[in-house]
Fold these 4 entries.
Entry 1:
Amino acid sequence: YEDPKMRSAAINITTHSGHVVLRGLVLNRKQAERAVEVARSVPSVKGVREELVIINRTSDAKKRFLKQPPR
């Protein structure tokens, strides 16, 4: 799934029997909410568990994260 608003997010998606778990890093709450919205929009999805971490704007982790090349 390609969403320009989500390019800066690093999300790992796992599924089992229609249940989705979202883990990874996002820059803000809106990105986390968008990830859940997209996952729930898939017809075969029965449930979504969100375990995303919002990166602080000034954190070193965010700076390293943003320097990574796009996947």
Note: The chain has a mean pLDDT of 83.
Entry 2:
Amino acid sequence: AKYLMKVTDFLYKYQKSLNDRINEISIALTSGNASDMASYKMMVGEIQGLSYALEQVRTLLEKTDNDIDSA
């Protein structure tokens, strides 16, 4: 159980880090910081990748929480 708690702590911190980066890029985009279309596409692509990773982390956390609840 101790190991499982450390893993979930890591996942929650990683989730926060992903969210923070998505917010940073979103603010940059809405502030007009994309200098050209290539830069805009790169920023949007990064958000898409981070969002995918975030969804995977959420799924793992839900599974872990369910495993803890049923233990």
Note: The CA atoms of residues 37 and 45 lie 12 Å apart.
Entry 3:
Amino acid sequence: AIILLISLFNRFSSDIFNCCGCEITGKEYLVASHILPWGKSNAEQKVDPNNGLLLCPNHDFLFDSLLDRKS
């Protein structure tokens, strides 16, 4: 799971608006997701740009489901 997270994170860039999990593009179709969940983050982590991924709604749901199972 950690390798998957690193792989997804390496594809994230604020200059490239496409899903980290597939080829869906366009800001209107993407969700900004936190890697470390908002509720478990301190104030600094909540605004850290390195704590985020751009995902389509389907991959956002799968990513959140994966994190829920690990916690």
Note: The mean pLDDT is 78.
Entry 4:
Amino acid sequence: HLSKLVDRQNVAFANVGALEKSDHRLVLTLYYLTGERLTWHQVADKMNLSEQRIYQLHNEAIEELEKRWSE
């Protein structure tokens, strides 16, 4: 089980790391990959952005990932 978890985590980091925009990488990393279980409000605070902007960046990043996966 641990091996599969590590493999999935590595795939997630690789996919996020391949995103073009650093803000996209950071918002996904802070929310999903750090293990800190940050809220959207905490992510916004860490990035010095509004929660609304964080939601926009998140949606843009997810759209980019979906586009990459569909190719």
Note: The helical segments are 2-17, 22-33, 40-47, 51-70.
